[in-house]
Amino acid sequence: MRSLNLFFVAALHFIYARADFSVFTNDDAYDAAEYGLFPIQTYTSTDLVSPRLNILQSSPECDASLFTFLSPRGGAVSDATATILDQSGHLVWTIGGYDQIYNLMVQEYLGEQYLTFWAGNDAVGGHGAGFYYMLDTSYREVRKIPAAGGLAGDLHDLRITEDGTALITVYEVVTADLTELGKSSQGELWDCLIQEINIATGELIFQWRAAEHYRIADTFKDIGDDGGIGRAFDFFHINSVAKDPKGNYLVSSRYMHTLTYISGETGEIIWILGGKKNMFTDLSDGNATDFAYQHDARFADNFTGVSIFNNAVDDPHPYLAPYSRGLHIKLDEEHMTAELVGEYINPNHVRAVSQGSMQVLENGNVFLGYGNAAAFTEYAANGTVLCDAHFGPQIRFGSAEVQSYRAYKYAWHGWPLTDPEVSILTDTSDNWNFYASWNGATEVDAWILQGASDPEAGEDQWEDLEAITKTEFETQFAILELYPKYLRVLAVDKEDIVLGVSSPLDAAEEKIWSLPPLRLEGNDTWALKFLMAFAALTGVIVGSREAWSIWRSRRKGVHWEQVEQTDIRLD
Ligand SMILES: *[C@@H]1O[C@H](CO)[C@@H](O)[C@H](O)[C@H]1NC(C)=O
Ligand SMILES: *[C@@H]1O[C@H](CO)[C@@H](O)[C@H](O)[C@H]1NC(C)=O
Ligand SMILES: *[C@@H]1O[C@H](CO)[C@@H](O)[C@H](O)[C@H]1NC(C)=O
Ligand SMILES: *[C@@H]1O[C@H](CO)[C@@H](O)[C@H](O)[C@H]1NC(C)=O
């Protein structure tokens, strides 16, 4: 029985060691889904998990002290999360438990930085019913913003303005005359609204409805069986909203293939770029106006141009149409001309059948998230690919198993209110280690391992044992024989100021009770899963037997170490 147990402990060590990888680099097996549909990184000091990237290309030109902001979700993602990674792909912060999460951003509200995202039910016909969340730099949820008028907040956009207002997208079912499309004069339509809301008071400041300004028949979406009662037709599909200093709005419509510039005074349309009612002369032979199913329209060039993520494809036309790309379009509103001045094309010609984002960074680089396809890519302004990464296998792009509505980059500084998390475990070579991590603590420069003989020891009795500069999410210290019984870590910043202290761990106790945790990976074979389950069960049985015998021997006044020694027989 004992040897059987040792065998399983060895198997568990093997499994634990497999979880201890960092990112992949240009790994074809990753993109062929040989490591599973959603390769994740697990940790010893915490139950948090994070996507494990396949980094296809990297460059120092991408490192502007910015982090990458994702909201991974999909069929192969067990818990949708908001996740921040550093430039090397290491976890910085992650949170789950919010149903579906979309659109993780850093935004400024009244001079302070916040993390913002949408969370709720995204299974409402291609849009969402939920709320917009704001987390402060300590990761406290400080606001949960609803849409105005009793409507559900849609997942597609939340932009906080300098005036302390929120621009959001909203969907509402309305009755509409659909006879032009061969349907009822009392049909149902998903109307698309912009709302601008005062965040502090909830007051609705501006509202605009697409159905009041667009002819339904100008859509590119086939009505199919939609339009009847309970089958509202999604003719417009708003997916982004922005506002300029003139007080006018810019809206992207996926199914009209248009950007619309709207008067903030009257709500009237000032111009339409793209689609059936395009008002611009295309100086690029159609390349500036023929975008389709596009997302994330933003003002560019000091409000004289726009940037968009041009999906170019939609679900019904997989892999025949052109691939997705970022577009930078220069507009001349006086002469009503549009010119394509920048184009950002993925080296693998990724096609994002939905979602996606384009962000022009302060240094001029362009960052694209491929939405439905688990990829993000950074380009120089001239279109040269600088960095390229996948967080799901390329062979499965289009399957919706791993997606992130958008991917953005920001600077971020966070000071969590939690304590650092710690654990003691053996590594593959059977050496004991102390592990430390701290979700969201961006300012930690180094970890200091301290020891004391008494967990209640005064501050001056904790002795510094080793210091390690933090380079990854989790930091590992080897535990030396001579170390005191109780161990803890301090997290210190660049100025050696202590940011946090972990609770102390009793190294001796931990060694008895911390069997490496079971980690199931996507690519584990059924045989291995069975083995792990069997090992876990055996572990529980053997553990209980052990606990029983320790308890019995303790009652008899025998020290457990003696029991351990006399009991080891490799039969
Ligand atoms: C699972 O993926 C890891 C990825 O590094 C690989 O080393 C391992 O051999 C794979 N396991 C199986 C059972 O395919
Ligand atoms: C438009 O795009 C096509 C395809 O990429 C390209 O061949 C053509 O040169 C472009 N035309 C202009 C005027 O940019
Ligand atoms: C942006 O445009 C405004 C109005 O045309 C102008 O006053 C301002 O100087 C411009 N800013 C920059 C950075 O070019
Ligand atoms: C485009 O940008 C890259 C990266 O900054 C640079 O190496 C390259 O020389 C540029 N190409 C041109 C044609 O300017």
Automatic annotation (TrEMBL):
InterPro entries: Arylsulfate_ST, ASST-like, Quinoprotein_ADH-like_sf. It comes from the Eukaryota. The keyword Acetylation does not apply. Keywords: Signal. Pfam families: Arylsulfotran_2. Residues 1-19 form the signal peptide. This is Arylsulfotransferase. It comes from Lachnellula suecica. The lineage of its organism: Eukaryota, Fungi, Dikarya, Ascomycota, Pezizomycotina.
